[in-house]
Design a protein that fits this description.
Strand content: 35-45%
Largest sheet: 6 strands, antiparallel
Oligomer: single chain
Mean pLDDT: 85
Low-confidence stretches: none
Distance between the termini: 17 Å
Helix content: 10-25%
Radius of gyration: 14 Å
Number of helices: 1
Structural class: alpha+beta
Shape: globular
């Protein structure tokens, strides 16, 4: 994840610390399905808010996609959308897509 999602990722005491430039966010891993899905909850976010990234493969075409679900409050929706748009754009450049 440190190759495209954040500048740096540190895992310690069951908490992931993500760093972007001067911003640091901590998250707990809620669930994982190997090579399929990861689901996190930001430590200082609302209890019902989480984000997950899932690799989805179309049964007919075998196309692979990254599905991102991020539950956010109305106040943070625009910011979260911008963050994900930037991260996906960067992922495209890393993959050469």
């Amino acid at each position: 994840m440190s190759q495209w999602f954040a500048d740096d990722v540190i895992f310690r005491d069951q908490v992931y610390t993500f760093t972007w430039d001067d911003e640091v966010q901590k998250a707990k891993l809620l669930s994982v399905k190997e090579n399929k899905l990861v689901k996190f909850k930001w430590v200082d976010d609302e209890p019902h808010c989480y984000f997950e990234m899932e690799i989805v493969q179309d049964e007919l075409t075998n196309d692979v996609a990254l599905a991102i679900t991020d539950f956010a409050t109305d106040e943070t929706l625009a910011e979260r959308r911008q963050i994900w748009d930037n991260q996906i754009t960067y992922l495209h450049s890393v993959l050469g897509a």
